[in-house]
Amino acid sequence: MSELGLSLTAIAIFATTALALVGPMLGSSPLLPAGLGFGLLVLFSLDSVTWQGRGATLLIDGIQQRSPEYRQRILHHEAGHYLVATALGLPVTGYTLSAWQAFQQGQSGRGGVQFQSAELEAEAAQGQLSQRSLEQWCQVLMAGAAAEQLVYGNVEGGADDRAQWQQLWRQLDRNPAEGNLRSRWGLLKAKTLIEQQRLAYVALVAAMAAEASIEDCNRAIAAAWIETAVAD
């Protein structure tokens, strides 16, 4: 079951259990908890089929966004993607830090960093991704997890990034075991790059926290950038 599916199931179980415990004190029908649980599952299923799960994503992310720690982790994760994409010559075109911001911009999911990837996507669609493009894509996708490792010492996010990498690897008809090794390589490369440009990363985090424009974020990176060779 997906992370979203587990979260929705947990919400339904929690609501049903809470009502079952509190219901008798309120004099409600003993059938109400079961009805509520069934209704929630039906509602979540309809959302999944008709709206690709966007409603549930907005609900879950909205609850999680109430936590300052969660918001900070998302911020640092996405800043990792942004910095590495910029360093590897993939211009960033936008970013969002919540499902609601993504929804307002007509995007699916919980948000993230958007960059100019038309060339990479065209190559991938033909199953002929060059080695350089493959390495770029791998490092950018793993950069969020790399940033979390550096800042927090562990990784909680990045499931969508890993799924996207696995999908790309299958599309290229490559050995799955090799894909796992390559993703670990991308994680290490991205982590090294962020470590080398720690000042630029910190400046970018501050800019993104202030919801700065792409232009201002890029200026923040440039002002703190340390000239060093980016390994291929």
From TrEMBL:
<dbReference type="InterPro" id="IPR037219">
    <property type="entry name" value="Peptidase_M41-like"/>
</dbReference>
<dbReference type="GO" id="GO:0004222">
    <property type="term" value="F:metalloendopeptidase activity"/>
</dbReference>
<keyword id="KW-0645">Protease</keyword>
<keyword id="KW-0378">Hydrolase</keyword>
<dbReference type="GO" id="GO:0006508">
    <property type="term" value="P:proteolysis"/>
</dbReference>
<protein>
    <submittedName>
        <fullName>ATP-dependent Zn protease</fullName>
    </submittedName>
</protein>
<dbReference type="GO" id="GO:0005524">
    <property type="term" value="F:ATP binding"/>
</dbReference>
<dbReference type="GO" id="GO:0004176">
    <property type="term" value="F:ATP-dependent peptidase activity"/>
</dbReference>
